[in-house]
Write a structure and sequence with these properties.
There is one protein chain. The chain has 231 residues and is of the alpha/beta class. It contains five helices and five strands; from the N terminus they run αααβαββαββ. Strands 2-1-5-3-4 form a five-stranded mixed β-sheet, covered by helices on one side. The longest helix has 51 residues. The protein is rod-shaped.
Length: 231
Amino acid sequence: MAHSEKESYQSYPRDAFDNPPSGPVGVHRGRRSVVVRVAPFLIVIVAAALAGLLAWGIASGELAKVQLPWSNQSQTSQSDAGDDGQSDDQDASDSQSDQSDQSDQSDQSDQTDQTDGAQDEPDGDDQSQDGAEQTAPEQTVNYGTGVRVVNATGVNGYAAQQMGVLQSVGYTNVVAANPSGGTLPAVNVVWYQNETDMATAQDVANTLGIATVEQTTGISDPIVVVYIAAQ
């Protein structure tokens, strides 16, 4: 039997499905924010960077140089323990050294006492030498001592020339003369008669550049300078 009328939407009775709610319904979700969508990519990038840094630190050995807080505390405790042990050893060694020093000092004091007892008795020779040193007169240069300069060189005026040299350094009682007989020395010489004139004679010789200084008797002046050759 053929239908005479065509069926349409209005041919069916209305029910609850004919009035659906407005907006997304069921499995449909709203649009997510940019932060939520980008966060997974950022996490992956940071994790990859940390993994690469860790691998580089292990391969290069730089990771072993990193000082961790708990490692510093352990090293500090070990160093404190080492310092305490060293201080104890040093105290023990110091006490031993003090004891050895005291024993050495006592031994030295005993030896010193023995040597002092031996030195308490003075020798007669030492006393006599000390007395001789005390009585020895002090040698000084006397620029007023009489000095005679004898010219045996054959050069006219040589004695007067050397007399002027002595007067230029402060000698006030100097005369020039020629040989008056007697034996002449072999070299230029400075003669002196008394022990008290030895220092003055040596100063005269140094001033005139004469190397020979001799003590003699029978000379006319306290100091006599004899020139055999001109210098």
